[in-house]
């Protein structure tokens, strides 16, 4: 039996125990399962309170159920919802009762959304946005994902694809009427104008430099420097909790520690790395290697030193700030505000003086990080492209559009073929043309029940 002919079910709410849990069922057997367990079929889209019973008429739970006959449902199929008390025992009993029906099985990750996609309820860009919304950690990520779910990219791509097909039709009509004198020229000229305009629009979107992709992935900040300069103490200050072991002994941090922060709505990953120094300890050597690797990959490095490590060689790229720690122990050292003002927060490099143990200057550092994040993400929320897959296919379409104008002089047939390729690339972006090879990759990252 084809998987789409099977009925699936899953817990679509949070992990138990919880006050209420929602279990969804989608597929041809949804009606039968609801009628059997609830004892009746409620009116479509009207909540009904019922006592659920299994096949042996043993009570399962006092529940609220809903019935959504297809195609007017989230997946386009018949869908039933069971709102039950969220204990593990209730859910286990309900799952056992559902599994007892023929051709009814537990859903795989993303299977509900995949069925919605396959039934035309949403395109692939909207499905990807739904996944981003589920995994959004900050308000700015939430707003961007919601805009994409509402068709921010999909609507534009559908319009571009329709215009490409129209331009292609004009060119092919010119080929068909090539023996009619000036008719081909009259058809091809507006087609060329439309192609050039479309290429300009897509190129403008691609020129946004992946700001939406950055907002989705987040900013990575690495705290690096010599051993025992206070990197873990600063990490704990930023996290406002004890996430890293603080010790007066050098080399305490042996591995990479990560925390996720929400800085003014921007997603930021802060990494505490091992102290960078020459060592004979093989475990510490591995920690130093990982520290250097993560610092090299970070978007911003906070290179920490103190009075004892003034001469430490900075091992970071251009996007690095010097953070001078333990200013409370060094009366001659300038404070954070002095250093930041001297360098200019918008300039490079930026230097800060802090006391990670007391908190002096940490707020000024956080304020500067927020400013850096704002500059780093730019107008990320306004961008159209959220994923590398989308960028790749848009780039393919733009290349083919440009090539179609170049080859036009060598034959309208060549230009028409390039336009067909551009339309196919946009169709793949929407998930309507030849995307079977990427569907498993996209939907496997969804949580079960979505």
Main attributes?
450 residues, alpha/beta, six-stranded mixed β-sheet
Low-pLDDT regions: 244-254, 338-348
The largest sheet is: 6 strands, mixed
Element order, helices and strands?
EEHEEEHEHHHHHHEHEEHEEHEHHHH
Structural class: alpha/beta
Output the radius of gyration: 29 Å
User: What percent of the residues sit in helical stretches (DSSP H or I)?
Assistant: 40-55%
Please indicate the percent range of residues in DSSP E strands (runs of 2 or more): 15-25%
Q: Strand sequence of the main sheet, in spatial order?
A: 3-4-5-2-1-6
Number of helices: 15
Tell me, rounded to a whole number, the average pLDDT.
80
Count of distinct strands: 12
Gap between N and C termini, in Å?
22 Å
Outline = flat
Overview of the molecule:
The protein is an alpha/beta fold and about 450 residues long. Helices cover about 45% and strands about 15% of the residues. It has 15 helices and twelve strands. It has helices spanning about 30-40, 90-100, 110-120, 125-135, 140-150, 155-175, 185-205, 210-215, 230-240, 280-295, 335-345, 360-375, 390-405, 410-430, 435-445; strands at about 5-10, 20-25, 50-55, 60-70, 80-85, 105, 220-225, 255-265, 265-270, 300-305, 320-325, 350-355. The protein has a six-stranded mixed β-sheet with strand order 3-4-5-2-1-6. The chain has a six-stranded mixed β-sheet with strand order 8-9-7-10-11-12, sandwiched between helices.
């Amino acid at each position: 039996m084809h998987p789409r002919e099977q009925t699936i079910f899953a817990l679509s709410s949070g992990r138990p125990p919880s006050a209420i849990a929602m279990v969804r069922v989608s597929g041809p057997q949804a009606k039968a399962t609801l009628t059997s367990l609830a004892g009746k079929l409620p009116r479509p889209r009207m909540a009904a309170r019922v006592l659920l019973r299994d096949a042996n008429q043993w009570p399962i739970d006092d529940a609220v159920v809903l019935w959504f006959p297809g195609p007017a449902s989230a997946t386009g199929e018949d869908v039933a919802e069971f709102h039950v008390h969220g204990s593990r025992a209730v859910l286990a009993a309900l799952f056992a009762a559902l599994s007892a029906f023929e051709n009814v099985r537990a859903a795989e990750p993303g299977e509900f959304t995949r069925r919605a996609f396959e039934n035309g309820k949403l395109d692939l860009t909207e499905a990807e946005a739904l996944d981003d919304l589920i995994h959004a950690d900050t308000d700015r990520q939430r707003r961007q994902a919601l805009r994409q779910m509402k068709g921010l990219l999909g609507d534009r791509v559908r319009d571009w694809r329709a215009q490409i097909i129209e331009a292609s039709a004009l060119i092919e009509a010119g080929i068909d009427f090539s023996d009619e004198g000036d008719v081909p020229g009259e058809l091809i000229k507006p087609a060329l104008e439309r192609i050039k305009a479309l290429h300009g629009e897509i190129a403008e979107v691609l020129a946004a430099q992946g700001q939406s992709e950055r907002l989705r992935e987040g900013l990575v900040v690495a705290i690096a420097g010599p051993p025992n300069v206070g990197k873990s103490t600063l990490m704990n200050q930023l996290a406002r909790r004890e996430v890293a072991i603080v010790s007066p002994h050098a080399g305490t941090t042996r591995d990479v520690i990560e925390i996720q922060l929400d800085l003014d709505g921007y997603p930021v990953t802060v990494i505490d790395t091992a102290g960078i120094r020459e060592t004979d300890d093989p475990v510490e050597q591995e920690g130093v290697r990982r520290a250097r690797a993560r610092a090299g990959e970070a978007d911003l490095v906070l290179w920490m030193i103190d009075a004892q490590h003034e001469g430490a060689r900075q091992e970071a790229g251009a996007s690095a700030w010097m953070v001078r720690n333990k200013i409370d122990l060094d009366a001659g050292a300038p404070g954070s505000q002095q250093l930041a003002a001297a360098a200019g927060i918008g300039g490079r490099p930026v230097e800060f003086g802090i006391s990670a143990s007391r908190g002096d200057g940490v707020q000024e550092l956080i304020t500067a990080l927020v400013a850096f994040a704002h500059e780093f993400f730019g107008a990320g929320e306004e961008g159209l492209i959220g994923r590398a897959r989308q960028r790749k296919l848009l780039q393919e379409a733009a290349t083919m559009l440009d090539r179609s104008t170049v080859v036009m002089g060598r034959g309208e047939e060549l230009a028409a073929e390039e336009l067909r390729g551009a339309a196919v690339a946009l169709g793949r972006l929407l998930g309507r043309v030849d995307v079977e090879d990427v569907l498993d990759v996209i939907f496997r990252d969804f949580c079960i029940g979505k």
